[in-house]
Design a protein that fits this description.
single chain, 5 helices, 2 strands, 197 residues
Length: 197
């Protein structure tokens, strides 16, 4: 399994170290983060009749959904064994979701999602039913969605070369402002209320 992963990294790593490789990563991350935002809000609409679910960022992006596919795309090569592909599609999104949930709770003292009432959950951050869903979605992404997105990137790459630094800066600014906003909310929540004397 480790050798297969290393082959995948060797296959992709030279491309990642170039400006073009960085531009591709920002493109894939942005597209998948936006798709994740649409997916979560659509799920919220069908389950709670509310489309705009609370988001950590200001913009329409869910970074977890950007990180997991990018990791999968760059860890898996065409030569990767199918059993390893299935295991990665199950574990990578689950690990990303767990680490994100733990960090958000530690840094901002709150949960943006909670699986505590779901069977086979761990600390409310992950649960087996959703991990299985992420596994299937990841397989669908690798087989059908990513080839289409890769083709789209190939078509717009000359234009993207001019735009991607601004998109990267936008995402960084959004993250910085979101961290500031949620940190301030945390401080306000911790302030003791003074009774009128």
């Amino acid at each position: 399994m480790i050798l297969s992963l290393l082959n995948g990294l060797k296959h992709q790593h030279l491309e990642v170290l170039t400006i073009e490789g960085a531009a591709a990563i920002v493109f894939y991350f942005t597209i998948y983060s936006f798709i994740g935002w649409l997916l979560e809000n659509s799920y919220s609409f069908f389950t709670k009749q509310e489309f705009f679910k609370e988001n950590f960022l200001f913009g329409p992006f869910k970074p977890m959904y950007g990180f997991a596919p990018v990791l999968l795309v760059y860890l898996i090569s065409p030569a990767t064994n199918q059993v390893i592909v299935i295991l990665l599609c199950f574990f990578i999104p689950t690990i990303v979701e767990y680490v994100t949930g733990v960090l958000l709770q530690k840094l901002f003292n709150r949960k943006w999602w909670d699986y505590s009432d779901t069977p086979l959950q761990l600390h409310g951050h992950i649960c087996l039913p959703f991990s299985i869903c992420w596994g299937f979605l990841s397989l669908i992404c690798l087989k059908w969605i990513h080839p289409a997105i890769e083709t789209m990137f190939g078509a717009i790459e000359p234009y993207w070369a001019w735009v991607w630094p601004a998109v990267g800066l936008y995402l960084l600014a959004d993250l910085t402002l979101a961290i500031r906003k949620h940190s301030l909310q945390d401080l306000v929540a911790e302030e003791p209320t003074n009774p009128i004397q």
